[in-house]
Design a protein that fits this description.
Elements lengths: L13 E5 L3 H7 L1 H20 L6 H29 L2 E5 L2 E6 L5 E6 L3 E7 L2 H6 L1 E8 L6 E8 L1 H21 L24 H17 L4 H13 L2
Antiparallel strand pairs: 1-2, 2-3, 3-4, 5-6, 6-7
Helix pairs in contact: 1-3, 2-3, 6-7
């Protein structure tokens, strides 16, 4: 069981897991690569110079090659151990970030407090599949969780947003419904129309009567409009 799994609460499950891209391991192990480069140079010099057996040059180049190779191997294995111990985990409740080999550092961000996720991916990152992801939360200090050279970044962000949406939907379903028989506040009634001018009503009724005589409207429509106009006096 990985260390991040021991931090899960009851009912909390892992949705997605990632870590830094392998290129980050090579960058962190640059001193190991330099040591191996010294080993390669020592081997080339031995092949070119071909010093006599037992000579000082042979001893120096041989020891230089051996020591640089061993030191480089040790540095690389240390960085590989640190890299493999990383855990960037999305659960159904939070985003959990764990680093460290012997001394562990774990930080988390609650999904419901995440405000935004900013993804920065350059051309090389798009080709190799890594990016920097900054997660902004609703903490008082505007906390930002930085995931540098994150592997599978677009999938990580997608899974995180999906988990956040599911959590928000679940919280909305748990909201209490109004009790039976409770009075629901209604929209305010529309204001009654202003009183009509008597002269205007008389003129309008005359025009409507003309329309009835011409057959443009029915007698029922005329009577309904007449009652409406008279009711506004």
């Amino acid at each position: 069981m990985r260390y991040a799994d021991t931090l899960l609460a009851d009912g909390e499950v892992v949705v997605f897991r990632s870590r830094q891209h392998a290129l980050a391991l090579l960058l962190d192990a640059r001193y190991a690569l330099v040591a191996w480069a010294v080993t390669i140079v020592a081997v080339i010099l031995l092949a070119v110079v071909q010093p006599e057996s037992g000579s000082a040059v042979l001893n120096v180049l041989s020891w230089l090659g051996i020591v640089s190779f061993v030191v480089g191997l040790g540095l690389f294995l240390l960085q590989a151990w640190r890299w493999s111990a990383q855990d960037y985990v999305i659960t159904n409740r939070r985003v959990l970030k764990v680093d460290g080999v012997l001394n562990k550092h774990a930080g988390d961000s609650s999904l419901e407090k995440i405000n935004d996720a900013i993804l920065d991916q350059n051309l090389l990152g798009r080709l190799l599949g890594y990016a920097d992801l900054n997660i902004l939360t609703a903490a008082e200090d505007s906390k930002i969780d930085d995931y540098h050279m994150l592997a599978r970044p677009t999938e990580f962000k997608r899974q995180m947003l999906n988990a956040k949406n599911l959590l928000d939907d679940e919280a909305a379903r748990r909201l209490p419904s109004p009790p039976v028989g409770a009075v629901v506040a209604s929209q305010p009634a529309a204001a009654p129309p202003p009183p009509a001018d008597p002269a205007s009503v008389t003129r309008t009724l005359g025009e409507l009567k003309t329309l009835v005589d011409q057959g443009a409207i029915t007698q029922q429509e005329y009577d309904a409009k007449k009652a409406d106009l008279l009711g506004r006096l």
